[in-house]
From TrEMBL:
Belongs to the arginase family. Agmatinase subfamily. GO terms for molecular function: agmatinase activity; metal ion binding. SUPFAM superfamilies: Arginase/deacetylase (SSF52768). CDD domains: Agmatinase_PAH. This is Agmatinase. It comes from the Bacteria. The keyword ATP-binding does not apply. Binds 2 manganese ions per subunit. Its cofactor is Mn(2+). Keywords: Hydrolase, Manganese, Metal-binding.
């Protein structure tokens, strides 16, 4: 199971993504968008935990934080942390009705309990599906790859109707066709976009907990995110940046750049709403 082999330190990702975001500029070179001119944007800080070592309480704290954001009519763009954070984020944003999901990742993250806990980075989308937060028939998982000790995650995604696009299919189709297929799957309804940095090949993003060779290039990753322009997003995240495993800082820089791409999508959506 992927969770058993993960390297730690994703908790340091948000701080380093913030550091690297100082290199981001405002006007996009392709779309000529300036998200800071299109919407009011602010870093509202970190989620405060009431009991750091109680994973269920941590999940509740994150969910409550995002519920308040959602009720205030804001569109959240989040930096993880490992992928376990996306489940409580969805609890806060999608409690009224299930939403579509665009997941860009090396792993399906649909495994069951691990070491007696359901709160781990290998199972957020199984939890979200079982809680009725995401519609599995409107879920697409892009870039999946890497050997596993059990087929449990792949089998769960398949059995529930999620569209799994293994990296070989992504490479064969090309980014434009992958975007078209993902748009077909999620349709026109509300959708959440979650980007795990391990979807990118470790040649470009070595600083992550569960690196898998044979992934997206950094350019493909940016083009993929940009392809979802106009999709009705309720929020997005970039997760699993683990700075200690990349002394160059390039993984966090890519994470910050991806967040800028997502910010452009969300700001344009807010400006045209």
């Amino acid at each position: 199971m992927a969770a058993s082999l993960a390297r730690l330190c994703a908790r340091l990702g948000p701080r380093e993504i913030r550091n690297q975001s100082s290199l981001m500029r405002s006007i996009h070179h392709v779309t000529r968008q300036d998200p800071f001119a299109q919407a009011r944007i602010a870093d509202i800080g970190d989620v405060r935990f009431s009991s750091l070592y109680d994973l269920e309480r941590v999940s509740d704290d994150i969910a409550a934080h995002y519920r308040a954001i959602h009720q205030a009519g804001l569109l959240p763009l989040s930096a993880g942390g490992d992928h376990s954070v996306t489940y409580p984020i969805l609890r806060g944003l999608a409690a009224e009705a299930p939403v579509g999901l665009i997941q860009i990742d090396a792993h399906t993250d649909t495994w069951d309990e691990f070491q007696g806990s359901k709160f781990h980075h290998g199972g957020p989308f199984r939890l979200a599906c079982e809680a009725g937060l995401i519609d599995p028939t409107r879920t697409v998982q892009i870039g999946i790859r890497g050997a596993q000790n059990t087929a449990q995650g792949w089998d769960y995604s398949d059995a529930t109707g999620m569209r799994v696009m293994f990296m070989e299919e992504v490479e064969a189709l090309g980014i434009e066709s992958v975007v078209a297929e993902a748009r077909r799957v999620v349709g026109d309804g509300p959708v959440y976009l979650s980007f795990d940095i391990d979807s990118v090949d470790p040649a470009f993003a070595p600083g992550t907990g569960t690196p898998e060779v044979g992934g997206l290039t950094s350019l493909q990753a940016l083009q993929l995110v940009r392809g979802f322009r106009g999709q009705p997003l309720i929020g997005a995240d970039v997760v699993e940046v683990a700075p200690p495993f990349d002394p160059t800082g390039n993984t966090a820089l890519l994470g910050a750049t991806l967040m800028y791409e997502l910010l452009c999508l969300l700001a344009e959506q807010r400006a045209t709403a």
